[in-house]
Automatic annotation (TrEMBL):
<keyword id="KW-0547">Nucleotide-binding</keyword>
<dbReference type="InterPro" id="IPR005580">
    <property type="entry name" value="DbpA/CsdA_RNA-bd_dom"/>
</dbReference>
<feature type="domain" description="DEAD-box RNA helicase Q">
    <location>
        <begin position="2"/>
        <end position="30"/>
    </location>
</feature>
<dbReference type="Pfam" id="PF03880">
    <property type="entry name" value="DbpA"/>
</dbReference>
<feature type="domain" description="Helicase C-terminal">
    <location>
        <begin position="214"/>
        <end position="376"/>
    </location>
</feature>
<dbReference type="InterPro" id="IPR057325">
    <property type="entry name" value="DeaD_dimer"/>
</dbReference>
<dbReference type="GO" id="GO:0005524">
    <property type="term" value="F:ATP binding"/>
</dbReference>
<dbReference type="GO" id="GO:0005829">
    <property type="term" value="C:cytosol"/>
</dbReference>
<dbReference type="InterPro" id="IPR050547">
    <property type="entry name" value="DEAD_box_RNA_helicases"/>
</dbReference>
<keyword id="KW-0067">ATP-binding</keyword>
<dbReference type="InterPro" id="IPR001650">
    <property type="entry name" value="Helicase_C-like"/>
</dbReference>
<feature type="short sequence motif" description="Q motif">
    <location>
        <begin position="2"/>
        <end position="30"/>
    </location>
</feature>
<keyword id="KW-0346">Stress response</keyword>
<dbReference type="GO" id="GO:0033592">
    <property type="term" value="F:RNA strand annealing activity"/>
</dbReference>
<dbReference type="InterPro" id="IPR014014">
    <property type="entry name" value="RNA_helicase_DEAD_Q_motif"/>
</dbReference>
<dbReference type="InterPro" id="IPR014001">
    <property type="entry name" value="Helicase_ATP-bd"/>
</dbReference>
<dbReference type="GO" id="GO:0016787">
    <property type="term" value="F:hydrolase activity"/>
</dbReference>
Amino acid sequence: MKPFDSFQLDPLILKGIRDMGFEEPSPIQSECIPAVLRGEDVIGQAQTGTGKTAAFGIPLLEHVDPSRRKVQSVVLAPTRELAIQVSEELRRIGRPKRVQTLPIYGGQSIGRQIKALKQGVHVVIGTPGRMLDHLRRGTLRLNDVEIMVLDEADEMLDMGFIDDIEAVMKYLPEQRQLLLFSATMPPGIRHLAQKYMKKPRYITVSRGEVTAPVIEQVYYKVLENGKLDSLCRILDSEDVEQGILFGRTKKGVDDLAEALQARGYLAGGLHGDMAQQQRDRVMNAFRRGDIELLVATDVAARGIDVGRVSHVINYDIPQDAESYVHRIGRTGRAGRAGMALTLVTPREMKQLRSIEQEIGDRLTPRELPTLEEVAERQQQVLAEQLAETIEKEEPIPLFEEIVEKLTAEHDPKKMAVAALHLAFADRFTSGNDAVYDFGETGASPGMVRFFINVGRNADIRPRELVKAIAEQAGIAAKKVGRINIYDRFSFVEVPEEAAPFVFEALRQTRINGARVNLEPARPRNRR
Ligand code: ADP
Ligand code: MG
């Protein structure tokens, strides 16, 4: 890979790049920077986390003449968070060269933005709606724009910004460069490119070349009504530095954030119905680390780049593969390893399979940690905290006197146990592990036997039954136990630990086209 200084950039820009801590260009940057410097229109396609911002940002900043107090470049981005983030990265790279950047987005006072625009900024980064608003008011002029960028173009189209984008285009001068960046290339984007770009150079970074660090992708099978408990067990057994949790709906996000707070986690919610100020407050707290778990909807979390996000957790499974890819791209930023955990309920197994198929990758199944494992891990954390406090050797006057008195009368070991019990017992009270009690089903030891209301009459054969269970409940075919198929019903045994999930996944499903009903067998059904 050629180094940054092979691009003949202004030394001030090189300084900005060094200040960012970038050592060498990422693959998309190596190809984009020279093409943009040559004046070409560029379409850049690469996954999240590949450094697209600097790929357009560096040549764009190189192009700016800071002595001209005119808007010379504009960037359109799908969300306010993203506009702010891009603006911040450009501001940092462009600082030595004294390039002024400004993010504009809905939700912030327009008066304040007008004032800021009047100061004379060189690069404006905005969401399409607000950008258009300023253009129509005449508070922003694009007559001198030389480079226009559409960042996360697929997201903008998804969010219905196409009309706004085209309206903004009308304000651009005839002579300008257009750059388009996107993680995916749906037809709408190709169309946009055809309409507005001149002989665009198409630059793509294929999977193999992506410098993005490894994101470990794991899924957990959970039951709908035990989902929150399952999540907490996962959180308690993982080393989560900072995590983004995805929920399907705004209400779901609020509920989950509250439930986590109630259980003592440092959590905060983020979604589109919140006032801008509130969103900023949450984001800042998350950046500072005051919030460890950010619970967000897809839209609110788009483009968020916080370096320490160690985990992305899909509390609700994403709607499609594209959303999955965007979500997990929030971790493993800037060269760090990341974990992407997906919770899957029985009804969502099909969705998981379809996502896997589309991304061409399989998620690793992982067992939920048992209560004992969680307790063990919490004991470990507690032991570390105690040791740390002892090693600090700071006086703890509040308790020193009472301990002095008590040690005179009691065994210090027993006293420590009693003290810990008083302080922490409620942390370790074991919950109830079993959501289902199937009772006596006449199964072999360690198994649960289910009754199925169809048999040979629906052409059911053992192989199909095993396949249906393995696929729909995500268990290995060889784990399925004894099978008996009769004329009008069947029996099947599955391992105890898999039984609740199998039950929920198959209690109402189709096997071989036949609608089936599955219920725990009663021993008297046995023949
Ligand atoms: P994308 O837009 O492709 O999702 P970003 O532009 O947001 O990716 O970059 C992802 C992260 O990688 C950011 O934290 C960014 O600062 C960092 N980054 C970008 N280019 C480089 C580079 N050449 N070397 C190291 N880190 C980089
Ligand atoms: Mg980006």
